[in-house]
Amino acid sequence: MQEPMPPKRSIGRRQTPTRAEFRRLALSAEIGTVTRGQLAVLAQNLPCTGMVNATEAYLLTTLINTAPAEAFDKGGRPIIFKSNQQLAFEINRSAGRVSRLLSRLFDAGLITMQDSGNYKRYPTRDVEGVIVDGCGIDMRILIVRYRELDELVRQARVEKAAANAALRRYRGTLRNLRRALASAYCLAQRTRARLEVRLEKVATLVGIATRAPSALLLRATALLEWFVERAMRLPRRPEVAVARQDSACRCAGSGMHKQSTSPDSHEESNDNQRSATAGPMTSARTGAAREWTSEGSPRRRSPAVKQPRHPRQEMVALQDILRAIPALSTYGLALPRSWAELARIAPQMCRIAGISDDTRRRAVDQMGEQRAAVAIAITLQKLDRQEVSSPDGYLRAMTERAGSGELHLSRSIFGLAARYTMEPLP
Question: In the chain, helix, strand, coil percent, each to 5?
């Protein structure tokens, strides 16, 4: 019986579509646009991007410094012909380790390899002795990708600086809160205990501060600052202060009321419009909630009535919003009693959720203050349920959908309310 032949060992360097693409991209390099010094500095800074480790960056820097400076000038050929044994001696590693490091640099698109039939590295010269080509380690791919890689390094530095600033601010606010709780003797014992419990919850959520993302640290810092204000018994901030009006109508003179008021006559809107103080909708009405638009309503409107600046797509009761957004109580926000109060706490919700002021202003410009506040509240609730990883991007997407008329806030509100109602109590 014939014995089975052992499998033959693979011959040649491993070929992948990515490596082939890098080889083709290296041919488009414009020699002379980047100097050797620029590439050496780039190679030393690449570990901060996570593309390579320190040893791989050290080998890449050695390869760049091996080529003469003239090789990176116009008409030059930045190709390295040193053997793995020589490179291993220069970086104090084994030849096998150098071979693996070169493969990783090839896969990362930082070098390309032009192999000969016997893996020897040698140059090809013309009749005048000038190197025109060769088999070795080609560095031209770095010239092509220099701008891209340099931008990655810059972004990594910016993110690191922002993370350090967020970490310092979080630690300082945490220390201030603990000092405030220890020195606030006039604070009620119940209030002190509640703040201490919330402090422990925030600290547990953050965990190890040095490993927490900067967005989480910023949200935690905003909460801790609010806790400090409560411990010091400071008055509420202007954006969250409740504007009390001695008026017969709670919503009289409110900009939010004017914006959300339907232009229909009183007789026509008795069966179609719900006020902000109406009771919660039943499940049957929730499933069949009608969407209202200023363009698509078949009602005849008086020409003297001025149309609202921002189109409305639905009417939602304030009680439905409070029922669907329990995160307002979770983060210690005062529950709004009118649409104006909901709009006033929108900036504070943005700080807690990590939404930038520019994103909030765009949402207000596109949807109006009332609908923008509802959208921000929805974003905060989904962030609390860990359904949204980027609150800023989520609100921007909602703003874009509102511009195209595809945003339906009532569906989100009723869906969140239904899920919160069906969840079992802890």
Answer: 55, 5, 40
pLDDT of residue 154: 93
Give the model's pLDDT for residue 238.
56
How many CB atoms lie under 10 A from the CB of residue 11?
A: 5
Measured between alpha carbons, how far is 241 from 253 in angstroms, rounded to an integer? 17
154 vs 37, 143, 167, CA distance in Å? Answer: 17, 17, 20
Runs of H (alpha helix) within 232-300: 255-260, 266-269, 283-287
Determine the Cα–Cα distance for residues 315 and 261; give it in Å rounded to an integer. 9
- CA distances, 120 to each of 8, 63, 89, 138 (Å): 23, 17, 18, 14
Task: Please tell me the distance from the alpha carbon of residue 223 to that of residue 230, in angstroms, as a whole number.
Answer: 11
pLDDT value for 46: 94
**Strand spans (E) along 233-320:** none
Q: Which helix (H) or strand (E) holds 137?
A: strand 137-138
Contact indicator for 247, 253 with CB cutoff of 8 Å: yes
How far is residue 34's CA from residue 142's CA, in Å, rounded to a whole number? Answer: 9
Tell me the CATH architecture of domain 17-144. Orthogonal Bundle (1.10)
Residue 209 phi, psi (nearest 5)? -65, -35
Distance CA 129, CA 339 (A): 82
Spans of the chain below 50 pLDDT: 1, 239-313, 424-426
Give the H/E segment covering residue 98.
helix 95-107
Q: Is 213 exposed, middle or buried (0-12, 13-18, 19+ CB in 10 A)?
A: middle
Beta bridge partners of 125: 131
